[in-house]
Design goal:
By secondary structure, this protein is mainly alpha-helical. It folds into two domains: 73 residues, Glutaredoxin (3-Layer(aba) Sandwich), CATH 3.40.30; 148 residues, Glutathione S-transferase Yfyf (Class Pi), Chain A, domain 2, CATH 1.20.1050. It contains twelve helices and four strands, in the order ααβααβββαααααααα. The protein has a four-stranded mixed β-sheet with strand order 2-1-3-4. Helix 6 packs across helix 7, helix 9 runs parallel beside helix 11 and helix 10 packs across helix 12. The N and C termini lie far apart (89 Å). One of its GO terms (biological process) is mitochondrion organization.
C-alpha cells in the first residue's frame, strides 16, 4: 500500500457484529426518522427560511452622533434644554462647552452600566451592523473622550482649584440634597414630580420610591455629620456662594479663563436649577442665597445663552 493513502474498505477486515447497544441506538434513530410520506411532502414543498423581522419602530436605533443618557423630560431632550439633575447637567454643559455634538436621551439609573447617570454611547460606526453596540463611556471618562475627538478642553492650573471645587461638591451639594429631598414642600413640588411620578402611577410604588429617595439623601448627609443641622447646612452653602462670588469677581469665567472650563460647568449645574423658576421651588432659602450674588446669576445666564440657546 503506498504511503499516506487512505485504505479502501475492501482492504479492511470485515466489521464486527453490532453490539446490543448499537442495535438499540439504531432502533431509536429509526423511530425519530421522518416517515416516507412526510419526507415526500417536504421534498415537494421545501421549508423556506425567511429573513428576520425588523426591530419595532420604538426600539433604539444606532445614532449617527453620540448619545448622552441623562435625567431629562422627553420634550426637553428634543430641544437640547438642561437636565434637571446636577450630575447630568454638569457633563451635559461640559460637552456643550467642549463642542462635542451629541443628542440627549431620557433615562434612569437602571439603564446605566454603573448604576448612575450620565453615561454616553459613542456614535455608531458605519461599518458596524445594527446589532453591534459601542461600549458606554462613564462621566469621569468624558474629558478623555472629548480630547480624543480633537476638542480643546481648557483646564485651570490654579492651585486653589481643589479647594473651591470642594465647596461645590460638599457644601453646596449637601444643601441641595436637603432642600430638594428633605424640605417637605420642595420634595412634593419638585422632587416628586421629577423622580417619582414619571416612574409609576401606583400609589404604593410611588410611596416606596419617595421613601428610598429621602432615605438615601439623609444617609448621604449623615456621612459627614452625626446630626442634620438645617441652619448649618444653609449657612455653609451661603458662605460657599460668597466665596465663589469673590473668586469670580468681574470676570466672565472662573479663574480668569478666557473660555469656560469644567469648573464653570460644575457650578452651573446647581445655579441653573436653583434659578429655574419653572421647577416650582416652594422653600427658596437656598435660591435666595444664590440670588444675592449678582455675578453668579450673570454667570449662569451667560452659560445658558451661549451653550443652551437661552433655554
Amino acid at each position: 500500500m503506498p504511503p499516506n493513502k487512505i485504505p479502501d474498505n475492501k482492504d479492511e477486515a470485515p466489521p464486527p457484529a453490532q453490539s446490543s447497544f448499537s442495535q438499540q441506538t439504531s432502533k431509536v434513530r429509526n423511530f425519530f426518522s421522518i416517515p416516507a410520506p412526510v419526507k415526500t411532502l417536504f421534498d415537494k414543498v421545501p421549508v423556506l427560511t425567511y429573513p428576520s423581522n425588523e426591530l419595532p419602530q420604538r426600539a433604539p436605533k444606532p445614532a449617527r452622533i453620540p448619545s448622552l443618557y441623562v435625567f431629562i423630560k422627553e420634550e426637553d431632550a428634543a430641544a437640547g434644554r438642561p437636565s434637571y439633575n446636577p450630575s447630568c447637567l454638569k457633563w451635559q454643559a461640559f460637552l456643550n462647552i467642549a463642542g462635542v455634538n451629541h443628542r440627549l436621551v431620557p433615562s434612569s439609573n437602571h439603564a446605566s452600566p454603573t448604576g448612575v447617570l450620565p453615561f454616553l454611547l459613542p456614535a455608531a460606526n458605519s461599518s458596524n451592523s445594527p446589532q453591534e453596540t459601542s461600549a458606554p463611556i462613564i462621566s469621569n471618562k468624558l474629558i478623555k473622550y472629548a480630547e480624543k475627538l480633537g476638542k480643546t478642553v481648557v483646564e485651570t492650573s490654579s492651585m486653589r482649584y481643589e479647594a473651591y471645587q470642594s465647596l461645590i461638591d460638599h457644601r453646596i451639594r449637601s444643601a441641595w440634597l436637603y432642600t430638594l429631598y428633605l424640605e417637605p414642600l420642595n420634595f412634593s413640588a419638585v422632587a416628586y414630580q421629577l423622580y417619582v411620578s414619571p416612574n409609576s402611577s401606583n400609589p404604593l410604588v410611588r410611596a416606596s420610591i419617595s421613601h428610598q429617595l429621602r432615605s438615601a439623601a439623609e444617609a448621604e448627609l449623615l456621612k459627614h455629620t452625626s446630626i442634620i443641622d438645617t441652619d448649618d447646612l444653609y449657612s455653609e452653602a451661603d458662605k460657599a456662594f460668597e466665596a465663589l462670588s469673590i473668586l469670580l469677581g468681574g470676570d466672565s469665567w472662573f479663574f480668569g479663563c478666557s473660555t469656560p472650563t469644567l469648573f464653570d460647568a460644575s457650578i452651573f449645574a446647581y445655579t441653573q436649577l436653583l434659578l429655574d423658576d419653572e421647577l416650582g421651588w416652594k422653600e427658596k432659602k437656598l435660591c435666595r442665597a444664590l440670588r444675592r450674588r449678582a455675578n453668579l446669576v450673570q454667570h449662569r445666564e451667560r452659560l445658558l445663552v451661549k451653550y443652551f440657546g437661552g433655554s
